Amino acid sequence: MIFLDLVRRRQSVRQYLSRPVERDKVERCLEAARLAPSASNAQPWRFVVADDPALVRGLGRAGYNRFTREVPAFAAVIREPGKAVSRLGGWLAGRDYRLIDLGIAAEHFCLQAAEEGLGTCLLGLFNQRRVKKLLGVPPGRRVQILIALGYPADSQIREKRRKDLDRMRSYNRYGG
Ligand SMILES: Cc1cc2nc3c(=O)[nH]c(=O)nc-3n(C[C@H](O)[C@H](O)[C@H](O)COP(=O)(O)O)c2cc1C
Prior knowledge:
binds flavin mononucleotide; globular; NADH Oxidase; single chain; four-stranded antiparallel sheet; alpha+beta
């Protein structure tokens, strides 16, 4: 697929078929995430894919959006301690690069899912404690984002609601 077409096809899907997601497709999404860039190549992530129906039901109830109760699978993106050097660099710069790294990896996952004909929805709103417990995530880690995953109930691609290019870019100097 032409890259920009793929980017346009990726959209937040909030209604899914009950059809299970094949693991070979999930593996390619994970491979896309694995190849994502990260500060100091620290790769401060782990992915836990939940496709066991009882577990998925539990995770669905740990979300604050109703639609998550009808999602066939989830991928949890977990923030790991990462490398001391990138944590130090981030601390000196006053930011946690791991959040950027995880965001990029999560989007790689979602774009590959779109390529596979799967729908995704990034979920920032969920009960951290419940999700960690359900997935057996050890202390010191954080489930940064959940990705709802499955076959979309509706194949229509919505028009993207985004700022115009004129409101987001300039060359050589801020604003314009
Ligand atoms: C960090 C992050 C957290 C998000 N959390 C939620 C969420 O909790 N619930 C939800 O329905 N959508 C969530 N979204 C999806 C956004 O609402 C969505 O990406 C945005 O509205 C643009 O729409 P599109 O993805 O269909 O292009 C999240 C997206 C991001 C990047």
